[in-house]
Amino acid sequence: MEDYDFKLQYHPGKANVVDDALSRKSHSMFASLILEDWKNLVTIGDYNLEYRENEKTACISNIVATPSLFQIAQQSQWQDQELRAVWNQLHNGEQLDSWSTNKEGFVLFNGRLAVANDPYLRETILTEAHKSKFAVHPGSTKMYHDLKRQY
């Protein structure tokens, strides 16, 4: 290149009629940053996290005061006519095969918590088992057996 006498001039942006790699570089970086922010927002949404930001700090948190799953299950048992009838029969001294109650007043079937026929409750239990920050999902078979043991 030393043998040639030439002058290299770069015209960024609109001054250059044909886009080149140097003028597109800032656009692609900006697009990748926006995509990364979007992915982070999706992740925050998946875990029901709340994001707050002020001048000096940013906070991501997930503390929600709600009744425990067992309290919701017990309320559903009281609202379910079949389970309420089973509970009444057991407290009247009748012996029912596979049915019992525990000291907290839950109706049990084969020693496990009887879940009322409530789609919201069932969805809540499965969501808690899948998305809880305290649960590990090693596989559907293990999860099924863990849920079967508890409910």
Structure description:
Helices cover 48% and strands 11% of the residues. With 151 residues, the protein is mostly helical. It folds into 2 domains: 48 residues, no CATH class; 82 residues, no CATH class. The strands form 2 sheets. The protein has a 3-stranded antiparallel β-sheet. Strand 1 and strand 2 form a beta hairpin. The chain is rod-shaped and about 105 Å long. The chain starts with 20 loop residues before the first helix and ends with a helix. The mean pLDDT is 76. This is Integrase zinc-binding domain-containing protein. InterPro entries: Integrase_H2C2.
Number of domains: 2
Major beta sheet, strand line-up: 3-4-5
| Largest sheet: number of strands, sense, barrel closure | 3 strands, antiparallel
Q: List the uncertain runs.
A: none
Q: Using the alpha-carbon principal axes, give the shape.
A: rod-shaped
User: How many strand elements?
Assistant: 5
DSSP summary: helix tally: 5
Order of secondary-structure elements: HEEHHEEEHH
Report the C-alpha radius of gyration, rounded: 30 Å
The mean pLDDT is: 76
Helix content: 40-55%
Task: Give the N-to-C terminal Cα separation.
Answer: 78 Å
InterPro entries: Integrase_H2C2
Protein name: Integrase zinc-binding domain-containing protein
Pfam family, one: Integrase_H2C2
Domain Integrase zinc-binding: 119-151
